[in-house]
Amino acid sequence: MHRACISLTQAGSVGGRHFTKWLLKSSGRAMVSATNQRHSTKVGAEPFLNGTSAVYMEEMYKSWCIDPKSVHVSWQIFFSNCENDVPPGSAHQAPPLGTHVGRNLTPMFNLSPATSPALGGYLDDKLIDDHLAVQAIIRSYQARGHLVAELDPLGIMYADLHSTYTDRKGQPPESVVRNYMLEEADMDRIFKLPSTTFIGGKEKSLSLREILHRLENAYCRHIGVEFMFINSLEQCNWIRQKLESPGITELTNDEKRLILARLTRATGFEAFLARKWSSEKRFGLEGCEILIPAMKQVIDKSTELGVESIVMGMPHRGRLNVLANVCRKPLEQIFTQFAALESADDGSGDVKYHLGTYIERLNRVTNKNIRLAVVANPSHLEAVDPVVQGKTRAEQFYRGDGEGKKVMSIILHGDAAFAGQGIVYETFHLSDLPDYTTHGTIHIVANNQIGFTTDPRHSRSSPYCTDVARVVNAPIFHVNSDDPESVMHVCKIAAEWRATFHKDVVIDIVCYRRNGHNEIDEPMFTQPLMYRKIKNTKPALDKYAEKLTSEGVVTPEEVKDVRDKYESICEASYQNARKETHIKYKDWLDSPWSGFFEGKDPLQVSPTGVKEDTLVHIGKRFSSPPPNAAEFVIHKGSFLFIYLRVHV
Fold this sequence. Notes:
The protein has 648 residues and is α/β, with parallel strands linked by helices. It has helices at residues 2-10, 14-26, 28-31, 54-66, 73-83, 125-144, 158-161, 174-178, 208-219, 233-244, 253-276, 291-304, 319-325, 331-336, 385-398, 415-420, 422-428, 484-501, 528-535, 540-551, 556-577, 612-622, 636-647, and strands at residues 190-192, 205-207, 223-226, 309-313, 342-343, 357-363, 368-374, 407-414, 441-447, 476-480, 505-510, 582-583. A hairpin with a 4-residue loop joins strand 6 and strand 7 (368-374). The N and C termini lie far apart (93 Å).
């Protein structure tokens, strides 16, 4: 301390002498003596002053002398008070609450002169409470925004989730603000954004009105996300950034046209089958046609990120559409399944909506080759789940793909089966086991909001059919099927999540089933109110075409041209299929390999027996102790076990 005082005095400045004098007074504890007791009342008046802080203080003072703004505002006040002979104990003032003491650091809150302690005022409790309230509001949207999101294209599911529902139109009810002790007068106040949100983009603070508007658009429109139960801050922040960043959901006009074309194909395929085979059961996709563009978006993004092979499993609903428009299986092969033709080769066969396939083709979006396999499913809905995982795991093993970067799995589900069949829960619990993991599966739920003829309120106890996925910390994205662009955004996030974290993810496409359980059933008998609503609901294709037309992205003529073009493709394939006289089961194998049908009968099993002498020799060697092992003692229980295995 003396060295600091001498050094400052030797500087020759008047300020230095003033500061030295003041410092000697304030550090009276260190310099008090028997002959000088009059300063003892000021001992410890400045508690941060001691012998070890002298060098640091000297450096701060020198910096202040050169440029007062180079030190923190609290040090500016301190040195200024010293210069003005302020008594010890009064020169130091505590820095503003929420600031960091140090050089060139900005305060957490924007303080006016009236509230800044450094300028003579004090930070009141209300300012702190209001900022904490805004942070609580942000977290509430992230955790519970899905409960008020516009997810149901029919508008009937909200009675199960909350008592009242109105179109929020980008702004919450006044009660949201009042619940956090804020008022309308606070809406235009500026608040600093916490690090757990990305709604500001490059902006660090926003008005409360703008904060609420951006949160509404991120969490309460057509996407509802459940992710706050995930116990990883990195993963939660990753999802927040994908949802909250300004402009993150915007698409180019070319991307919108691609969605329209794919949705047109999905809708046109079902319409064509309905016209040609009106009395056939086909378990069509009407009401959830967006599933086809959704799957293609997942495949496109995954291929872009390095995936080369995708194994898929699904129930019967929509299978023919997936084979036609996702796998691009030749339409002639699909249409011949309706003709009840004899088989040209051996095999057991199955109904057309249980069959699988294997396709290797060029992905035109990424210009990369992709292998697609749809596993055959013998009607039992979710029974195919572990089969898909086993096939994926095996392919990863034989390709040396230890991290799942080249081979992945996609499983499609119905809402009732996803919640009702225990095999779903069991399969989820394989997802992170070292010997069973496939390094992340993308689950897509075609949520018809009905199971056969059962209302969800009578088929499950949980609010969502996807709640089973929470057991493995899988994020769950609920999305309105009538908003194709939101569906594409969710699918893109899911593919990126799987590539980044190699963990399961769920996409819940909330849609409806335009027909009955199959095309022959009459659903008005069991769900008259629901199907009255469905009959008055426009197909998703019509709604999206009208939207793009109003935006000037396409013209009505272009929309019609896309429809007519696909119709002509289907008609040409139909005419070719009528010329076929047999079907071929080999076209429907999900795991073909070279030579499978060549030169031998696939139903004839080769001899697998072993000579009895060989088995006896193996048994004797297996039950004998190691040779030259006199000290080797066989446990009695083990010896009995070996004896029984060999001789009984």
